[in-house]
Amino acid sequence: MEYIISERMKSLKGSAIREIFKYAADPSVISLAGGNPDPALFPNEELAGIAKELLEDQPVASLQYGITEGYTPLREAVKERLKRVENIGRADDELIIVSGGQQGIELITKCMVNEGDAVIVEEPSFIGATNAFRSYGAKLVGVPVKEDGMDVDVLEKILSERSDVKMIYTIPTFQNPMGVTMSVEKRKRLYELAVEHGVLILEDNPYGELCFDGKKTPTIKSMDKEGIVAYSGSFSKILAPGLRLGYLCADRSLIAKAVIAKQVSDVHTPCLTQMMANEFMKRYDLDGLIQKMRASYAHKCGTMLKAMDEYFPKGIFYTRPNGGLFIWCDLGNGIDTLALSKKTIAEKVVYVPGCTFMTDMEKPCSALRLNYSTMSDEKIVEGIKRLGKPFRDAVAAAK
Amino acid sequence: MEYIISERMKSLKGSAIREIFKYAADPSVISLAGGNPDPALFPNEELAGIAKELLEDQPVASLQYGITEGYTPLREAVKERLKRVENIGRADDELIIVSGGQQGIELITKCMVNEGDAVIVEEPSFIGATNAFRSYGAKLVGVPVKEDGMDVDVLEKILSERSDVKMIYTIPTFQNPMGVTMSVEKRKRLYELAVEHGVLILEDNPYGELCFDGKKTPTIKSMDKEGIVAYSGSFSKILAPGLRLGYLCADRSLIAKAVIAKQVSDVHTPCLTQMMANEFMKRYDLDGLIQKMRASYAHKCGTMLKAMDEYFPKGIFYTRPNGGLFIWCDLGNGIDTLALSKKTIAEKVVYVPGCTFMTDMEKPCSALRLNYSTMSDEKIVEGIKRLGKPFRDAVAAAK
After folding, report:
1. I want to staple A179 with a disulfide (CB 3.0 to 4.6 A). Which of A149, A284, A321, B256 is the partner?
2. Residue of B142, B213, B211 whose CA lies nearest to B180
């Protein structure tokens, strides 16, 4: 049979990261291409005890169908935590547990974006989100990102010129892929522009807790008085991603629609994993665990930056993140990092070419994303060292 | 802010079953409205031991990000089982693990159905599926269901008259909500019609294993030579629904698209739950567990039918299922079972009104769905007894 794929899905391709991961599976290759949290920090012994107890003592709650909104005690615990840690939660806000942050993004898109509508995204941005928008036929409109976040002047211009913008997607804190954080001033202006133009903000904050110095920038959602911000959060980077647990907090009328969308998507997030996260928060010190993560990632990021200072060609740009999992590096000089990745693969090291994160993925891009979260210091230094020569050669040849 | 909901989601309402479930939460109410498997048959002790061991011994595999296609050993185990039990698996077929059977339906719809395309469904059919189709802007075209399954003459007529049909959705075995099974002859004809008209069949088979006499009707997918059948299976009714585990088997080119759709939906199904199902199948006797379910549901179904014979008005129609979880009852006489449900709620008993399962949910319907899977014999008999008087009164008044 010849399958006539739907218009919305026809042109959507698998993530380029997946192709690069094929090489990353070779143990002699150092992968700086990942985005995984460090498994050494997973509280697996604690979760093992919890899982056993839940299945033994609460077989119906843990194994029977649950409600679409999520396991009630977990919802309450997340609401309490969001209020305490991020000052999030208007009287008219509601919260739904989702199957990882990705699902929150998809549900909001399904509920809000018609085929042909425009969605404003940071350029570069997270491919999981941009592909979710593409999968509903959205037109992506990119806004450049500076070291203090999205260029809000460009945003203002787009909003004043176009009437088809349905949503603004932003990862304001420790952005994927750049690692940069939007300033408080820009957050305020972004919020005001959204209110002025009546456009929903989708604030994605999977990395916000991973601030190296423990200092948090106020979320855009914490400024929300109008219900114009939908906030996507996740347990993937603060507990364990394999559990596939996230949450979506937005005005209750919007969450009510998201619940209907989730009902036809996966009915509900598994009960056991929800109950495990809830019990972990009740019995153990999640904030303490996050402290350990901050210290570990701060150290690894510092190690990578020091190696980059030593081995990378002089005069190129890279970010110096204060949190999160990623460093963004721009070789400039018209270098195509996708083509260059073939050379670095020969050196047994991989990264993610910048084009992956762009609204136009076909256009050559001189930037790339590096990740440091899962490796030993030795591997981080060795990986950067291996990139050094091809990077220096490429820059020298391009000049 | 005023939210302008997308066209596809604008008119989609929550399931009517959810409203009825509110009454079902009252412990004095007997709910015949559910669709849950019997939690007494959940192998929770076995799963507790498995979960603990997996989290202790394989923390990375069970808690780190996994691949979108699913946990490889589980995929292999399900393929092997499908081949052995259902004779499913062409050389060009592939299989993806999904987050419950519902997700398989949603992914195929997203990949195949454009807004405005027609999807043929049995009338009545499973609301989770019909709402998934609605959520992608599909036009639903109903085909009546007889005691031996979908009326294939009507199907043939529709296929010859319309060119906008993209998919035929069927639950051929122990259909939800009717409990009936499509004959082998009709399955063959349905398959041939689909091939002739080049229309994909989505075969949904969550109840097929629950055959009271252990005799199986060949799946439509087992007849598939063209790759024209996408098969949706589930662990919800043979292991535990709270795990949210299902699988989708179809031509590899279609599965490749479904993988991309799943990547933007929830990245992957949780690792732990997938590994638990895989370990359970390795260590324990899933076929033996299913045998117990068959015997238990056969007994409960028999108990309900006997009570219906005794307490229900004479001369009305109801199905006598050979498997699955549901009995369909038609009071006829122009009775509106949605209106009637208000009276039965006063008698402390609830069912699902037939209109819920129809393409036009606003039209009054004289049928209703009954479920017997989770209750004691006493409750089943008492529930049917409570329905008896309002049903007899309604039929007497309507005559």
Report:
1. A321
2. B211
Q: Which among A127, A157, A106, A82 has a CA at the least distance from the CA of A354?
A: A127
Chain A residues near residue B198 by CB distance under 8 angstroms = 1-2
Radius of gyration of chain B (CA): 21
Are B9 and A260 in contact (CB < 8 Å)? yes
Neighbours of B214 (CB within 10 A): 12
Neighbours of B255 (CB within 10 A): 22
Separation of alpha carbons A264 and A72, rounded Å: 20
Amino acid letter, B108? I
Domains and CATH numbers, chain A: 7-36+288-398 (3.90.1150.10), 64-283 (3.40.640.10)
CB B111 within 8 A of CB B257: yes
| DSSP string of A156-203, one letter each residue | HHHHHH-S-EEEEEE--SS-TTT-----HHHHHHHHHHHHHHT-EEEE
CA dihedral A280, A107, A229, A177 (to 10 degrees): 80
Residue pointed to by tokens 């709650």: A61
**Cβ separation of B263 and A14 shorter than 8 Å?**
yes
Tokens representing residue B90 in the block? 């062409």
- Residue-wise pLDDT for B143-190, tens only, equals 999 999 999 999 999 999 999 999 999 999 999 999 999 999 999 999
pLDDT, tens digit, for every residue of B201-236? 999 999 999 999 999 999 999 999 999 999 999 999
Contact call for residues A269 and A244 (beta carbons, < 8 A): yes
Global pTM? 0.97
Is the link from the previous residue into A177 a cis peptide, with omega within 30 of 0? yes
In the 8-state DSSP scheme, what is residue B211?
B
Task: Identify the band that residue B17 occupies on the pLDDT scale cut at 50, 70 and 90.
Answer: low
DSSP SS3 for B300? helix
Contact of B109 with B254, CB cutoff 8 Å: no
* Alpha carbons A293 and B123: distance in angstroms, whole number: 54
Q: Is A272 on the interface with B (CB under 8 A)?
A: yes
Query: Are A152 and A201 spatial neighbours (Cβ–Cβ below 8 Å)?
Result: no
Q: Fill in the amino acid letter for A216.
A: K
Q: Which residue of A has its CA nearest to B3?
A: A254
Is residue A85 less than 8 Å (CB to CB) from chain B? no
HSE-up of residue B34 (Cα within 13 Å, Cβ side): 20
Q: Which of B51, B64, B260 sits opposite A52 (nearest CB)?
A: B51
User: What is residue A133's DSSP assignment?
Assistant: H
Q: How far apart are CA B388 and CA B384, in angstroms?
A: 6
In the block, tokens 């991989």 appear at A350
Q: Is the distance from CB of B208 to CB of B219 less than 8 angstroms?
A: yes
* Cβ–Cβ pairs < 8 A, chains A and B: 252
Q: Do A42 and B64 touch (CB under 8 A)?
A: yes
Residues of A in contact with B107 (CB under 8 A): none
Q: At residue A94, what is the residue type?
A: E
| Amino acid B319: pLDDT | 98
- ipTM for this model: 0.97
Cβ(A318)–Cβ(A292) below 8 Å:
no
- Sheet containing strand A367-371, edge to edge, reads A317-318, A326-330, A367-371, A352-353
* pLDDT value at residue A53: 98
Closest CA to B328 of B183, B123, B132, B119: B123
The mean pLDDT of chain A is 96
- Nearest-Cα residue of chain B relative to residue A10: B111
Please choose, from the candidates A267, A242, A196, the residue with its C-alpha nearest in 3D space to the C-alpha of residue A37: A242
